[in-house]
Amino acid sequence: MSLPKRIDIHEVGPREGMQIEKNPIATADKIRLVDLLSECGFPEIEVTSFVSPKWVPQMADAEQVVAGIRVRPGTAYTGIYLNRQGMVRALKTGKLTVLGKLGVTASETFSRKNTNRSIDETIAEAQDRIEAAREWNVPITEIGVMAAFGCNYEGDVDLGRVVDLIARLLAIGQAHALPIQLIQLSDTMGWANPNSIRRLVGMVRERWPEHRINLHLHDTRGLGLANAVAAMEMGVDDFDSAVGGLGGCPYGGFKDAAGNIVTEDLVHLCAEMGVETGVDLDRVVEVAREAEAIIGRPLPGKVMRGGHFSSYRR
Amino acid sequence: MSLPKRIDIHEVGPREGMQIEKNPIATADKIRLVDLLSECGFPEIEVTSFVSPKWVPQMADAEQVVAGIRVRPGTAYTGIYLNRQGMVRALKTGKLTVLGKLGVTASETFSRKNTNRSIDETIAEAQDRIEAAREWNVPITEIGVMAAFGCNYEGDVDLGRVVDLIARLLAIGQAHALPIQLIQLSDTMGWANPNSIRRLVGMVRERWPEHRINLHLHDTRGLGLANAVAAMEMGVDDFDSAVGGLGGCPYGGFKDAAGNIVTEDLVHLCAEMGVETGVDLDRVVEVAREAEAIIGRPLPGKVMRGGHFSSYRR
């Protein structure tokens, strides 16, 4: 089975993790977590979200967090935003790498619940987003489909529909000469399995071989790392994950469901299978334990509890 | 990727789970757990261990547990034993399926720590075990290697050594005309990864194609289900697992490490990938929640928290 020689791991814990916790996390702790992650060697750390504090009060300190972090060369620090206002907030920090993305959700119901817009409305808004990005010189380099494998409200998602949505977004990108490089497939509610990963990744790669694929996997039903292995075997070399397994999947009545795949468990897996990540496993395990202390509840990461193997191999 | 049409799942939670908990579990709760599992459709439920109550006080009520359970046709109820005395205790319950096994550990250090015997001493004792089994008419149908992929005390285990140990045990079996059908490979401390699974399973299958392989996987580093997928892709159709992820891996200073792979997460995986298990997913998820209530601490199972898909497919 042939695996990529190297993958990129995008650490999304500070953003996905902090936005879901019920107890408030101190701004200083958020800054400390990002600074600790900066020592680990990630190509990207998703630091925060520039969204309305009315809807996501946990992210009201986005600017203060970014102001407080130490930026290390070699890592891109990013923030999520959903509209022009958020994009401008991210830009005004002066410290973040700000890129544009055209995103859509494959489930009509989840699209409305998550963003208060239908799929077609979301696609129609791409025009505004492209104009805002052009105005502020932000390159749009990515398209993405959320709930690409299934949805807690609608059930199975037809993979053909996902491919159609990608085609629509890429057509918009082409019409506006956007420098789209990446297609992100998000298993937002943990519906994927190794077979559906292979099917969808295979369909996307066959149709758009020149685009890189990123997988954003959730471990909602425990299949996250099995899915990552299946994806790597299909040549996928770009993954999101969260240190300690921060975050969650609080949809469809499941408040305590697991979050993103666990960064350090993915790094361990890659180390064992000879796939380079550039991430320091010893350090990221320490950060996972620190993240658990900050959050104040047990996180699902396994390697931080079971230990890894570097001491045996020295 | 070709998967088995059907796999057998051996539920080991009542045995592996109960022997590790620090707080005493009431005998009535142990009985109730087994009775609930009996409704799920497993071919085998490992009920208890017939070991010395001096060493494993949690199993001192082995006889009472077996006396209390309701035996359902179609399920084999078994108990673990390590010597003639334990075997006779299991037989005297009159309710268990008692089969013999020749087992050995691939790590010298773990062998001594776990059983107070070297590898060679363990193999030398096979003679006694065979005599005792013959005397009591117990067929020895299985050989097994523990720590077959690595060890928290010795590190990586040479897979060639594992193959040699299997060859030695099978030679003993042949010399005594034992009806050995199954080769069990146990990743006792969670060292396997999909590559090492493929390598070892491939070596064993090539050399002994007439024997069925059982995998006893631990999720110590989060790779349990990825390893199960890799094994199924190699044709393995026989697995141990524990409801809710009961049990642990308390070796090498890691007291809170994860236990066996999670039964209901494995059943969900199989259901999603079109592999029959004969296990009722709805029921086993309910039992996992009940097991968590009995144990009184969060168990690592994911599907019981994230929900499964049967409601969407009805």
CATH topology of the largest domain in chain A, by name, is: TIM Barrel
The neighbouring-strand order within the major sheet of chain A is 3-2-1-10-9-8-5-4
Q: Total domains of chain A, how many?
A: 2
Average of per-residue pLDDT values of chain A = 95
Spans where pLDDT lies below 50 across 5 or more residues of chain A: none
Give the N-to-C terminal Cα separation of chain A.
27 Å
Describe what this molecule looks like in 3D:
- 2 copies of one chain form a homodimer.
- The first copy, chain A, is an alpha/beta fold and 314 residues long.
- Helix content of chain A is 42%, strand content 16%.
- Chain A folds into 2 domains: 1-94 and 242-314, Aldolase class I (TIM Barrel, Alpha-Beta Barrel), CATH 3.20.20.70; 99-190 and 197-209, Aldolase class I (TIM Barrel).
- Chain A has helices spanning 13-18, 27-38, 62-68, 84-92, 108-115, 119-124, 126-135, 159-175, 194-207, 224-233, 263-273, 281-295, 303-306, 310-313, and strands spanning 8-11, 44-50, 76-81, 100-105, 140-146, 150-151, 155-156, 182-187, 212-217, 238-241.
- In chain A, the strands form 2 sheets. Chain A has an 8-stranded parallel beta sheet with strand order 3-2-1-10-9-8-5-4. In chain A, strands 6-7 form a two-stranded antiparallel ribbon.
- In chain A, helix 2 (27-38) packs across helix 3 and helix 11 runs antiparallel to helix 12.
- At the A-B interface, strand 7, helix 9, helix 10, helix 11 and helix 13 of A face strand 7, helix 9, helix 10, helix 11 and helix 13 of B.
